[in-house]
Design a protein that fits this description.
By secondary structure, the chain is of the alpha+beta class.
Length: about 100
């Protein structure tokens, strides 16, 4: 959305613990400070109400993907998990975000 020379990206997500984590909140605050300083795109976070999976359009895809990717018997290494996600969803990897 662009208004009066400002731009923002509206991010709508569920209440997953990592969405609310201190690390994510700190990263978003730092990103928004930098965006304000440089004229970049700010992030506006909007969380969905708790226990409302029908409002989250990605939920059905996530549930099926999770069942296809994870192994209940063991914890997957990060690299293996990423490879499985990219393969299952047929997407290319993007560079990881830095702190």
């Amino acid at each position: 959305m662009r208004r009066q020379g400002k731009s923002a990206l509206l991010v709508v997500w569920d209440n997953a613990s990592w969405h609310r984590s201190r690390e994510v909140r700190q990263w978003v605050r730092a990103h928004n400070r930098e965006a304000k300083r440089t004229g970049g795109v700010r992030l506006v976070l909007c969380q969905l109400p708790a226990k409302s999976p029908w409002l989250n359009r990605i939920e059905p895809h996530w549930v099926h993907g999770k069942k296809a990717i994870v192994e209940p018997q063991r914890m997957l290494a990060a690299a293996e998990m990423m490879t499985r996600v990219y393969t299952y969803y047929g997407c290319k990897p993007f560079p990881l975000l830095s702190h």
